[in-house]
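assembly run, all chains below
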Amino acid sequence: MKRVRKNIFILFVLLVLCIVFFFVSIAFGAVDIRIRDIFDAFLRRENTAQYRIIVQIRLPRTLTAILVGAALASAGAILQGVMRNPLATPNIIGVSSGAGLTALTIMILFPTHFYLVPVGAFAGALLTTFLIYSLAWKRGIIPTRLILAGVAVNSILGAGNNILLTTYPQRVSGVINFMVGGLSGCGWKEVRMIAPYILISLLISLLFTQRMNILMLGDEIATGLGLRVESVRRLLIVLSSLLAGSAVSAVGLLGFVGLIVPHTARSFVGNDYRFLFPASILLGSLTLMVCDLIARTVLAPIEIPVGVIMSILGGPFFLLLLRNQYKGS
Amino acid sequence: MPVLEAKNLTLAYAKKPVIHDANISIRSGEIISIIGPNGSGKSTLLKALCRLMRPVQGQTLLFGEDIWKLPTKKVAQVLAILPQVKHIHSDVTVRQLVGFGRFPHSRFARPLDKKDEEVIEEAIYSVRLQDHIDRFIGHLSGGEQQRAWIAMALAQLPKIMILDEPTTFLDISHQLEIMEMLCRLNRDKDMTIIMVLHDVNQAVRFSDKICALKEGQIVAFEKADEIITEERIRELFGIEGNIYQDIHNARPFFIPHRSLSQKEGS
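ok done. output:
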């Protein structure tokens, strides 16, 4: 009972931090804006330069960061649970490269149809998921086989990406931002495109947290408890690829969030998905907002892709976390 | 009417048959043990009895109805399973684990109510873990962990409990504790118990009836004190030994002398 209260407190702190950084993220950038002016902009809606910066640039970009961070972290949390494997994340089992391959194909081979990139990425993620799923299917899904199939598919799709990049070297510079993952140029169009999918998937997943807990006990126990193991697992896999696919379609191949955020959240609230899942969502949003803030400001006016910041800061942090965990056990 | 019944069950892994045409009928309130050498199909038969494995042919009937045609949640309301392979994070508390046992009785995404809490506490009490209710599973001993799993199964309020080698990996006192607990549940709650056991003497001592398997065939399904004879043990396990009478428990027991398979070497 004490732990429940502690976990609720941690979720509350994460929520407060998210709200704080929402405003900080809008306030800082190439032009600094006072927090009071942000409220003014929302309240008065006067068409000043500041209002346009806030409403047309900073706000949609921050919202994209929130949505994408939540989507990637929760997709990772779902997959790690469903597969009972700490390495199962959208970018390791190939869902992200599937999204990447279709997106790159459009960007490099059909640059005039650039507007199709999001839809393509999305379709790529879903197609890859079903491909992996059907490859691993044999009277039911065995998580290990699904991960191994995913790793193999990932490497094939990666080869596809590399063929595109090496045969059209002159067009590579245009897609680099997509390859490393970045939020620059994300506007209301992206928000409107991904928000419905991400929000609906998150809502459905939140209803399934106790089932995720039961799935963690192993297929036999879960069946014994009356859980329809196959259909629940299939639904959760589809949800996670919807989440990952939407994220990739907006910001490109931003992989690391899906691995480190759920693990970090685990070290905060433990393995109970009723807390772990919301904690991953909040921590994912927070992480991406903070990393994007750094990406925009540290070398301003030059912008570093958020994926780079993510890896430079997230990598060592994650290693530190691992070290402390081993010390603890 | 039997509570659980296997009719002409044929079971196979990747088309390799493991159980051929097995028939078994279990009545309410019985304690049944399945024994047999490694690879004889004990666990496979058990899995088919509790819908963990689909038969190639034949049926499993739960209260007269095909177990595969019943909604799995309905099955879980009367039949609880404790398999050998269980996964759990060490930071799950006893209360939380036992709470999972209420899942078959829960409505979609509805939290546990007062009645659930009562059932959970009673289940924990009946396996005598009330002093550990908020402790982590990872901090319990092997015997206590097994009792916590049994409490989870009890929280399902089942009429039948199916266990695969519930005493493996436990020392002798914890083995005894688990077996006595199962007998008490059987007596007090009239619960039908079906389990796979490795130890023949344990099976004889605690069961009403024993099902003996060899190479995928049921070779005997008889009352526990009649089933073991010197010939049958030789036939089943390939060992020679003698049967003695345990006066205290009024059951026969078996002491092995030598393995017949090593005869040529010595």
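DSSP finds 14 helices and no strands in chain A.

Residues 49-82 of chain A form the longest helix (34 residues).

not gonna interpret more than that til we talk
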